[in-house]
C-alpha cells in the first residue's frame, strides 16, 4: 500500500468543520485494519480533538449537536449552543449516540439469508452482489407489471432523504411508501388539523406560560422535544417575576408529574371529559367572554363539573378551581401528551385540550400555542391513509410482492394481535437496510446495512419546530467503521441498476452530491438564505460550521382558533373503552415509553440499560408498577414476580411499589423484551405491547396503547428487581430528619 493511501485510510484528524464533504473519498477500504498513529496523517495532531456540528438522530426532536473526535474516533457528544431547539443541551439518549457507532452487534457487511426465514442464518456477500440482487428482483417485478406490489416501510423520515425515497418509489411506479413509528403523534397531528386548521404540530411555548395544565404529557423525558420543553419549563419556574404553576393530570405519576405543583390522578380514559368539564366551568363562571361563548355553552352543556366528578374521580371543587386558575393566570397553556392521545378516543382528548387553549386566549398571536411556519421543503406531512395496517392487510392477502424496510421495527412495536409477523412471512422477498439485527430485520432475505448517523450525510427539518423554520445539517464525523453504505447511496445505486425512468429521474452519483445540490436549490429559492452569504460555496461552509440554518427572527405570529361547529364531530361523551370486563380484569393497564429506550430502539445501548429509570431507578429490566394499597391487598411485596394478564395474552415481570399510581391502575414501561437486537437488549425484561388488543384509530391510524384491562397474580417465574434506590418509605429508620416549628425558630435565633 502506498504511504499516501495509508494515511488517507487511517482517519479524519483535525480538518475542522469542512471535512464532511471530503469524507466520501476518505473511507477505509473493506477489510482494512486501524493501527496506532505511529505516523499520523498530515491533517491530524494526535490526541488533539476536533469538533463537528451535526444533528442527533436518537429521537425525532431534531436537536443540534457538536461531536468531539480524537484520532478518528468519536469521544463525546454535546448540544450545539447555536441551535434554537436544544440551545446547547442534550438528553441521555443523545449522549449515548457513540455507542450506536461502536456497538459490537452492528451488521458489518451485506448479508443474504441462508436458511428458514426468522432463524437468523445469513452468509456474507459483497456490495456488488447485494445491489445486483435487489436491482434484478425489482426489475423483474417491474417487467411483469407488479411495481405497485413493492412497499417501502421506514420510520417517520424527514429532510432530503425522504424526498429521495419518495422520488425513488414514484419513479419506480409504486405509491406504497409508508412511514411507521410507535410514537409518531398521528392523533395529535390529526386533532390539530381538524380543530385548529394546522398541518403541523405547533410550538408549545412552555417558557412563556404562567400556568401549565398538562394532560399526560411527560415533556421531561419523551414527549415531542423533551430538551426544548425542559429548558422552557426551567425558565417558566425561575426566569420571570412570577413562578409558573404546573398541574399534571395522569393516573400514573411520571417524572413530569413528580416535578409538578399538583398531581391530579384522574381515572384512566376520562381525561377528555375532565378537560371539557374545566371548559364548562370556564364558561359558566364567565371567565370567557368571546362572541362565540353561547355556541360553546350549547356544545358542551352536558359536561358539568358535578357529573364529571363522578366519572373522573376528580372533585367538583377541584375542577372549578383549576378552571379559575387556568384563565386567571395568563398566558396559560394546556397540552395533551402521549398518554392522552394513546386512548382509543385520543383525538377527542386532544381536541378538548385545544378547546381549553381557545377559551383561555392561548391561540392568539401573542399566546403560548405558536403555529410553526411551512417547512423549507414540501412533503413533510404525515399521510393518515398510509399506515402499518394497510401494509399488513396487503401482505396477508399476498398483495405485497417485495418489502423494503429501514429504521423501523413493527414486529416488536405492534401488538401480537395485529398479526404483523405472520403477515410479513407471506411476503416473497424482504430487503432491510438496518444497521442492527432486530426482530423485523431477521425476517429479511437480503440485508444491505446502512451507515450510522455519525458516519453519514443527511439533514433534518425540525417538526415541531420552535416557531421558526429550523434546518439542521448532518455530516459524517468519522470514517465508516465497517463495510456499510449510506442509504441514499444504496438507493441511487439500485436506481442505476434499474435503469430507464428511475435512473433518469435520480441522476446523482452519490448522496452527498445529491444533498449538496438540493441545498443549492434551497439557497437559490430562499431570499434570506441567499442574503446570508455572497455565494453558495460560502453558504455551504457556514452551514457545516453552524450545523444548520435558521432565520434570526421568525415570521409574524399567526392566530388560530377553534370553532364549536368544527370540533363537534370529534367530542366524545364517554370515557375511553378498554378491553376486558372489570370483574375478570380489575385493573387498567397504562403503558409509557421508558426514558432511555423510548419505543425500544435504545435498548441495545449499554449506557441506556445502565441508566437508572428516573422514577423507579430500575436498571437492565422491565417492571410492573402497583399502588402500595393494592399490593398489600393482594399479598404482594416489591420485587415479587407477578403475572399480568389481559384478554390478549400474559407476561411475567417483577413488581415495583409506586405510591404515585392509582389503586385501580397498573403501569408498565415500553422498551424491553427484545428477542433479538444484540447482546445488550436480547432477553431483558418483557414487552407489554404484546398483550394489547389490536386497536387502531380509523381516522389517524394511531395504535391505542392504553386500551386494555388486566389482572395481576403472583408468579413462579424466575427473576428479580434490580434498582439503585432503596425503599420509598422511611419505615422507622430515621432516614428523613424532621424538626418542629419551635425548634426551628430557636435554631434561627441562635444562628442570628
Question: How would you describe the overall organization of this protein?
Answer:
With 752 residues, the chain is an alpha/beta fold. Helices cover 31% and strands 15% of the residues. α5 crosses α19 (487-498). It starts with a helix and ends with a helix.
> Which word captures the global form?
globular
Helix content: 25-40%
Strand order of the largest sheet: 5-4-16-15-14-6-7
Binned strand content: 15-25%
pLDDT average, as an integer? 90
Helix/strand-derived class? alpha/beta
Query: What count of structural domains?
Result: 4
Please count the beta strands (DSSP E, at least 2 residues each).
25
Major sheet attributes: 7 strands, mixed
The CATH topology assignment of the largest domain is: Dimethylsulfoxide Reductase, domain 2
Which stretches of 5+ consecutive residues score pLDDT under 50?
1-32
User: In the CATH hierarchy, what is the superfamily of the largest domain?
Assistant: Dimethylsulfoxide Reductase, domain 2
CATH class of the largest domain: Alpha Beta
**Rg from C-alpha positions?**
27 Å
For the terminal residues, how far apart are their CA atoms? 78 Å
CATH architectural grouping of the largest domain? 3-Layer(aba) Sandwich
Could you give a short description of this structure?
It contains 27 helices and 25 strands. The chain is α/β, with parallel strands linked by helices and 752 residues long.
Amino acid at each position: 500500500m502506498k504511504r499516501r493511501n495509508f494515511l488517507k485510510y487511517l482517519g479524519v484528524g483535525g480538518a475542522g468543520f469542512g471535512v464532511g464533504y471530503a469524507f466520501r473519498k476518505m473511507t477505509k477500504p473493506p477489510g482494512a485494519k486501524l493501527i496506532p498513529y505511529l505516523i499520523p496523517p498530515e491533517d491530524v495532531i494526535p490526541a488533539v480533538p476536533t469538533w463537528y456540528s451535526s444533528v442527533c438522530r436518537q429521537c425525532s426532536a431534531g436537536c443540534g449537536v457538536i461531536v468531539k473526535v480524537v484520532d478518528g474516533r468519536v469521544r463525546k457528544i454535546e448540544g450545539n449552543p447555536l441551535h434554537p431547539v436544544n440551545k446547547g443541551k442534550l438528553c441521555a439518549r443523545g449522549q449515548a449516540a457513540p455507542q450506536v457507532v461502536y456497538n459490537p452487534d452492528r451488521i458489518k457487511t451485506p448479508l443474504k439469508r441462508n436458511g428458514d426465514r426468522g432463524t437468523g442464518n445469513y452468509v456474507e456477500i459483497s456490495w456488488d452482489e447485494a445491489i445486483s440482487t435487489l436491482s434484478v428482483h425489482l426489475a423483474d417485478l417491474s417487467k411483469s407489471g407488479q411495481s405497485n406490489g413493492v412497499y417501502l416501510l421506514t420510520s417517520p423520515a424527514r429532510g432530503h432523504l425522504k424526498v429521495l425515497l419518495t422520488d425513488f418509489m414514484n419513479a419506480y411506479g409504486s405509491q406504497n411508501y409508508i412511514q411507521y413509528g410507535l410514537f409518531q403523534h398521528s392523533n395529535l397531528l390529526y386533532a390539530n388539523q381538524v380543530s385548529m386548521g394546522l398541518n403541523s404540530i405547533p410550538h408549545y411555548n412552555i417558557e412563556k406560560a404562567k400556568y401549565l395544565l398538562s394532560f399526560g404529557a411527560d415533556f421531561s423525558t419523551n414527549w415531542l422535544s423533551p430538551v426544548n420543553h425542559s429548558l422552557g419549563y426551567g425558565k417558566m419556574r425561575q426566569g420571570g417575576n412570577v413562578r409558573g404553576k404546573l398541574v399534571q393530570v395522569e393516573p400514573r405519576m411520571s417524572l413530569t408529574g413528580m416535578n409538578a405543583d399538583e398531581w391530579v390522578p384522574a381515572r384512566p380514559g376520562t381525561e377528555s371529559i375532565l378537560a371539557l368539564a374545566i371548559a364548562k366551568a370556564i364558561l359558566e363562571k364567565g371567565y370567557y367572554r368571546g362572541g362565540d361563548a353561547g355556541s360553546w355553552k350549547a356544545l358542551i352543556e352536558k359536561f358539568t363539573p358535578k357529573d364529571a366528578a363522578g366519572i373522573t374521580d376528580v372533585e367538583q371543587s377541584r375542577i372549578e378551581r383549576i378552571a379559575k386558575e387556568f384563565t386567571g393566570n395568563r398566558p396559560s397553556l394546556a397540552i395533551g401528551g402521549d398518554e392522552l392521545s394513546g386512548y382509543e378516543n385520543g383525538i377527542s382528548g386532544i381536541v378538548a385540550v385545544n378547546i381549553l387553549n381557545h377559551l383561555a386566549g392561548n391561540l392568539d398571536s401573542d399566546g403560548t400555542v405558536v403555529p410553526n411556519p411551512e417547512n423549507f421543503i414540501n412533503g413533510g406531512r404525515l399521510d393518515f391513509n398510509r399506515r402499518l395496517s394497510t401494509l399488513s392487510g396487503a401482505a396477508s392477502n399476498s398483495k405485497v410482492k417485495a418489502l423494503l424496510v429501514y429504521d423501523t421495527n413493527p414486529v416488536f412495536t405492534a401488538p401480537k394481535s395485529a398479526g404483523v409477523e405472520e403477515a410479513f412471512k407471506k411476503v416473497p422477498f424482504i430487503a432491510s437496510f438496518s444497521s442492527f439485527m432486530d426482530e423485523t430485520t431477521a425476517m429479511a432475505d437480503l440485508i444491505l446495512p446502512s451507515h450510522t448517523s455519525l458516519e453519514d450525510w443527511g439533514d433534518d427539518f425540525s417538526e415541531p419546530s420552535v416557531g421558526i423554520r429550523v434546518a439542521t445539517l448532518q455530516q459524517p464525523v468519522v470514517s465508516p467503521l465497517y463495510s456499510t453504505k449510506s442509504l441514499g447511496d444504496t438507493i441511487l445505486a439500485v436506481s442505476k441498476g434499474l435503469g430507464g425512468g428511475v435512473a433518469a429521474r435520480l441522476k446523482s452519483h452519490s448522496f452527498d452530491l445529491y444533498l449538496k445540490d438540493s441545498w443549492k436549490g434551497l439557497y437559490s429559492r430562499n431570499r434570506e438564505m441567499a442574503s446570508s452569504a455572497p455565494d453558495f460555496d460560502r453558504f455551504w461552509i457556514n452551514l457545516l460550521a453552524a450545523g444548520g440554518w435558521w432565520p434570526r427572527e421568525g415570521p409574524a405570529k399567526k392566530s388560530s382558533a377553534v370553532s364549536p361547529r368544527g370540533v363537534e364531530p370529534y367530542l366524545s361523551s364517554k370515557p375511553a373503552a378498554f378491553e376486558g370486563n372489570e370483574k375478570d380484569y380489575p385493573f387498567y393497564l397504562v403503558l409509557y415509553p421508558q426514558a432511555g429506550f423510548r419505543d425500544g430502539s435504545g435498548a441495545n445501548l449499554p449506557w441506556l440499560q445502565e441508566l437508572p429509570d428516573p422514577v423507579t431507578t430500575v436498571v437492565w429490566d422491565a417492571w410492573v408498577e402497583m399502588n402500595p394499597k393494592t399490593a398489600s391487598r393482594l399479598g404482594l411485596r416489591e420485587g415479587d414476580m407477578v403475572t399480568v394478564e389481559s384478554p390478549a395474552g400474559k407476561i411475567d415481570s417483577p413488581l415495583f411499589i409506586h405510591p404515585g399510581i392509582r389503586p385501580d391502575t397498573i403501569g408498565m414501561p415500553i422498551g424491553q423484551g427484545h428477542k433479538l437486537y444484540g447482546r445488550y437488549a436480547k432477553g431483558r425484561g418483557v414487552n407489554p405491547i404484546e398483550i394489547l388488543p389490536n386497536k387502531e384509530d380509523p381516522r389517524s391510524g394511531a395504535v391505542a396503547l392504553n386500551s386494555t384491562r388486566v389482572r395481576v397474580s403472583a408468579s413462579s417465574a424466575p427473576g428479580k428487581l434490580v434498582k439503585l434506590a432503596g425503599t420509598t418509605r422511611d419505615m422507622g429508620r430515621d432516614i428523613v430528619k424532621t424538626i418542629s416549628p419551635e425548634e426551628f425558630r430557636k435554631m434561627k435565633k441562635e444562628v442570628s
